[in-house]
Amino acid sequence: MSLSSALYVGSVFHRRFSPKAHYFRYRLCWLYVDLDELPALDRALRFFSHNRANLFALNDRDHGDGGATPLRQQIEARLAESGIDIEGGAVRLLCMPRTLGVGFNPLSVYWCYRRDGSLAALIYQVHNTFGERHSYVLAADQGLNEARQACDKAFFVSPFLPMGLRYEFRVSPPGEALVVAIRALGENGVALQAAIAGKRRELTDRALLSTGFVMPAVAIKTIVAIHWEAVRLWLKGVPFLGRGVKIGKSVHPAVAGSSTKRPTSITPSAKPASQ
Question: Domain extents for the chain?
């Protein structure tokens, strides 16, 4: 089956620089799915389903605004709010799959292409453990092989990380390898550096089964890891900043932004886990 969709297997890492140094790295997997290919994938694969339970699944309610509107329509509407028209081009989503009936994505990324194949925008959808989600819609500069973008932090993620930060993104085009790197900058410089790094595998039943055997519960693993790392930060004496103002479970309006004007150096220091 010759499709754009794929499986990426690798690692996520975080490195905090202040007020206390902190580092972690976990082995994970992600689906990279062309939204228009979901019906074909659902029919062709035994161990993947769309909006149905399976070893690996993608449920629309885990993404976008969680409503009944088809995911592609939601993305096109969100792009239109930021003045971006992809003219029917491809929309491809990088996310962790549902496993064992549980889905959770701290970060999902949408590559939004124009009809001619050029990258029009990236959408970074962030979820926190309070059931809230927020999307950053950032236009892409034409002619660049690697997307470099920036925006102000507008969504609560962690009680150990302040709100007054600016995100810088550097994203490689999905190929044999994929990197989504992020820096969070504050008044005193880099507060946090994070990255997703993976190697591509063809999206087949064999690949899904072997990956599911090694990583049977990526969502549960992620939720447990988030809380474990919070305990580690607390034990190190990192200030607990609190929940702040509760904003409810609704999806916040997109935050439009532009690519950074200066080069950034946010290459992950950890290589993807061996395959």
Answer: 6-257
